[in-house]
Design a protein that fits this description.
CATH superfamily: Glucose-6-phosphate isomerase like protein, domain 1
Shape: globular
CATH architecture: 3-Layer(aba) Sandwich
Structural class: alpha/beta
Number of helices: 6
Largest sheet: 5 strands, parallel
Distance between the termini: 29 Å
CATH class: Alpha Beta
Strand content: 5-15%
Number of strands: 7
Radius of gyration: 16 Å
Order of helices and strands: HEEHEHEEHEEHH
Mean pLDDT: 93
Helix content: 25-40%
CATH topology: Rossmann fold
Number of domains: 1
C-alpha cells in the first residue's frame, strides 16, 4: 500500500488502521471497485486509505455549505447509534437512529416532517427507504459505502467499513471535528474514544 503522507491525513494513519476503516467485505460491486486497493488472501477487499481520507474531507466541506438544521443524518445500523448521537450533540445536526418513519421527508402533513437540504446515511442498504424519499425530493445524498454497497441513488460516496463500531465511531468523530472547524463552531471537546462504542 502506498503510505499516505501523515500531514495530509485528517487523523493519524494508525487511527484509520486500528479502526479497520479500510477493511471491506468479500463482496465487491462495480460502484465500489474504483476505491478498492487490493483483495487480501482471506478474500476481504481492502479500501484505499488515502481515498477514504480525501473523501471524508470533501464531504465535510460540502456539509459545511449547509446550516445544521438543513442537514439530516440517518443511521439504521445500531453499531453507529452512539457515534451518530454524539455527532448530533456537537454539531446541532438532527439524526434519525434506527427506523425511518415514512413521510418525514416527503409528507408536509407528517408531524415529524422536515425540510432537509442534505442527507447523510450510514449505509444506503438499511437506510434505503430514506434514500428513496430523498431522491424523490431531489435532496443530495452522501453515503458511507462498503465494498458490497450499490450506489446508483447516491450523489457522493465515502468508501469505508460501514459496519464496525470502531470504524463508524471514527467516521462520525472526523466529520464532527471537521464540520465544527469549518463552520467555526468552536473546538470539539469530545475525544475519539467517546465516539467509539466499545470504550
Amino acid at each position: 500500500m502506498v503510505e499516505p503522507k501523515e500531514e495530509n491525513l485528517l487523523v493519524p494513519l494508525d487511527k484509520y488502521l486500528k479502526a479497520g476503516l479500510h477493511i471491506g467485505t468479500k463482496f465487491k460491486t462495480k460502484y465500489m471497485a474504483p476505491f478498492i486497493y487490493k483483495v487480501r488472501p482471506d478474500g476481504l477487499a481492502v479500501l484505499n486509505v488515502q481515498e477514504i481520507n480525501e473523501r471524508i474531507g470533501i464531504a465535510a466541506e460540502f456539509m459545511a455549505q449547509y446550516e445544521p438544521e438543513e442537514i439530516l443524518v440517518a443511521c439504521r445500523r445500531e453499531n453507529g447509534w452512539k457515534a451518530a448521537e454524539l455527532f448530533s450533540k456537537h454539531t446541532g445536526i438532527d439524526v434519525i437512529s434506527g427506523r425511518y418513519s415514512p413521510g418525514v421527508l416527503i409528507n408536509p402533513d407528517s408531524k415529524n416532517f422536515t425540510e432537509t437540504k442534505l442527507l447523510v446515511v450510514a449505509d444506503p442498504w438499511p437506510d434505503r427507504n430514506i434514500v428513496k424519499d430523498a431522491n424523490k425530493m431531489g435532496v443530495p445524498i452522501i453515503a458511507f459505502c462498503d465494498t458490497n454497497n450499490t450506489a446508483n441513488d447516491i450523489d457522493f460516496i465515502i468508501p469505508c467499513n460501514n459496519k464496525g463500531k470502531k470504524s463508524l465511531g471514527l467516521l462520525f468523530y472526523i466529520l464532527t471535528k471537521e464540520y465544527m472547524k469549518i463552520k467555526k463552531l468552536g473546538e470539539l471537546k469530545a475525544s475519539l474514544e467517546d465516539f467509539d462504542d466499545e470504550s
